[in-house]
From TrEMBL:
Domain HTH LytTR-type: from-to ranges: 202-245
Gene3D superfamilies with a match to the protein in the record: LytTr DNA-binding domain
Name recorded for this polypeptide: HTH LytTR-type domain-containing protein
PROSITE patterns the record matches: HTH_LYTTR
SMART domains according to UniProt: LytTR
One Pfam match: LytTR
Single Gene Ontology MF annotation: DNA binding
Amino acid sequence: MDADQRSIVGVQVSNSGYGTLKTEFRENEIMSIEMWKPKKNYSIPIFHTRSGSFTVLTTLEECSSVFSAFVLLDTWNLVNLKKGERLETGSYGGRLYFQNSSIYTGVNLKSIGMWSDLVSKAKEAEKDDREILVSRIECSGRLDQGQFIKASDIFYIDTWEPKRNYHVPRFYTEEGCFTAGLTFQSCKEAFPHFFPAYNGSLVNIDWIDRIEEKMYGDTLLFKDSEHKTGIARSKVKYLKSIIEQ
């Protein structure tokens, strides 16, 4: 799949109609990426797209809703059974080991009792080729650059605490351990082809209709959309030269 055609997992934060909120969007539908404060003590990326506004996964509950084929094998882990290799059981529960890896996760007795049914349902689920914006967690706890991983490559999901009282999803794969892409820097690294309109905003030039210049500030208007965002005055001349090519 071409990068600009990738389907990205997200949590819809606005819905112009009624019914079920969407859980994914296309990269080529993004108009702008900005930072958003859903709560007073933290900010996360928000993606304004042609089909609504989305943000990243921030809770295990959201992950459970988005990855409906994954299973809670204990109270703290959400598991992709398609990646499971062998189950080892004991008196108080068990361990599920994953393919081509020494990584394992816990399995409670209730899940062990339903094991055949859980595995059967997992095999029937379609492969999930959607992608997730993440940052790799280094051994030191430092976060590496923003990138994408496929949902189908996940072994299991739990949560971790990158800072005090801030618990967010952590994704285990054969290639390492990742956390949700929570920073503007991770977005800049994962979307290098987007234009930095100002400090804290990236825009998709393909969707820009025009630049509205006014004394009190300049604004980017997007094609066939009510969405708009600001642009630093120092960036206007350069962006115009790109658009007018």
